[in-house]
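Continuing the series of single-chain predictions for the mutant panel. This is the parent chain; the variants come on the following pages.
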Amino acid sequence: MAPPARSACQILQAPRFAKAKRRLPEQAQLTVDEAVRGILADPLSGASKVGALKGVRVVKFKVGPQQLLLAYQFDPKRNMVEALDVGPHENFYRELQKYLDAR
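Parent structure:
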């Protein structure tokens, strides 16, 4: 008997992620889309954070010379990925923590 087919993961955009992505240049937006597709293929691919950001995973990728970070949370029960934020490393974790605390 074959194992049940795994249903596709759903993606949910936090308002902060959508706003940050809109502000990026078009080429960077396409690279973010590729990173999101990679996350949907393997939701546990990002580096897991500890402490105040426990439960958050981060994927790093380059757009030209600049490195961007994409933070997300994965809920295995609902099979859902929530994209939280995307941006350069400068103050990324501090601002992400403020955002999560305010929610």
